[in-house]
Amino acid sequence: MSHTRLARISLLLAAIGLNAAPALVGMAPVQAAEEKKAPEAPKDAVRPEIFKLIDPAVTKPLLDAKNYTKFQTRIDQVAAMPNLTPYETFVLNQMRVQLGQASGNNELTIKGLSAMIESGRLPQDNKLRFTRNDADMIEFSKTSKSGFAKPEVWHCEIPFENAPNPHGILIQNFVDAILDGTPLIAPGAEGMGSVELANVLLYSSLINQSIELPMDSQAWENKLNELIANSRHENELFIDGAVTARAVTPEFAATLNRAGPFGSANPEPVIALPSHQLVYADEVGQAHLRLRFKSGDGSIVNGIAFRSVGQKLGSALTQNRGQQLHVAGSLAVDRWQGNERVQFRVLDVAAPDQGPTVIR
């Protein structure tokens, strides 16, 4: 899944006030012993037989224990119940968002989130909210003396007028433009504005200055040419640190990720595995190589070399099965069926020299 789509998920979650594992709020089980005679049941309530399956006191421990299969089973049981009310469906989709966020299933998160938004049950107070750090996050991470410190933040609220049925308005406007020549509300050419905005964000981070729109395209092109001219030599790869396979754990990967977010102004750390034996290399997927490296103490770390088959990197790996290699790459946490393991994403390899190794 692309970073753009992941960012969209985060923005949507923030917009409706949900975190990575939103609580099931507002649920009111209908207790037969306590309810009074009434012509109709409360609109925002779930039936007792459904509440038994989605009771947060039961489901939250399942997520905490990463028992995603049992959590999904409860969702399936509720979905199979007859005559679900709109509110019960809303709560069910909220559970899907919980599961998707906890398990890293972005497709499930998007589907559940979209259904929640389309239900019209999310609170709307016509305010756009965002949180801004008082200090630059990269600088704060570098200078903080505490491993778990958080920068001071301030919260912003921007009021706006909510348009009734915005999709309907745009579609009708599109039809009117075709039939009657009505000016478009959002002409397709304006889509280039998003491209310019992305370039502005990148350019601003590179020169550490505010940029006014419309941007100076010539200055941006000059900056790109400068970056190309000064790019590092193709035979050099700068290493941020060296570890052995035993040290490559989810906890270590999480510690490195705290230095993020990573980008052009803050490159992802490059880690080296010095003199590790390549014990397994086999093609998988579309021209990728699945790998396994072993350190001197017998510890194993799994790796992947994306789109390397037929390239110099792929040839170097397949020709050195069973041999000692210096390996450089980055770390990523691979989540599958409730389990976590670190995957070493290989960027480059080199055969160890006979003399001492120098890592800089």
Summarize the structure.
The chain has 360 residues and is an alpha+beta fold. Helices cover 38% and strands 19% of the residues.
List keywords for this structure.
single chain, globular, alpha+beta, five-stranded mixed barrel, two-stranded antiparallel ribbon, 360 residues, disordered N terminus
What does the secondary structure layout of this molecule look like, with pairings?
Layout: H1 3-15, H2 48-54, H3 56-64, H4 68-79, H5 86-103, H6 106-118, E1 127-133, H7 137-143, E2 153-159, H8 166-180, H9 192-207, H10 217-229, E3 241-242, H11 250-257, E4 271-284, E5 288-294, E6 300-305, H12 312-318, E7 324-336, E8 339-350
Span between N and C termini? 33 Å
Tell me the strand order in the biggest sheet.
Answer: 4-5-6-8-7
Strand content: 15-25%
Task: Give the beta-strand count.
Answer: 8
Major sheet characteristics: 5 strands, mixed, barrel
Helix tally equals 12
* Quaternary structure type: single chain
The shape, in one word, is globular
Which structural category do the helix and sheet elements fall into? alpha+beta
Order of helices and strands: HHHHHHEHEHHHEHEEEHEE
Helix content range:
25-40%
The average pLDDT score comes to 81
Nearest-angstrom radius of gyration? 26 Å
Q: Any low-confidence stretches, pLDDT <50, length ≥5? A: 1-8, 15-39
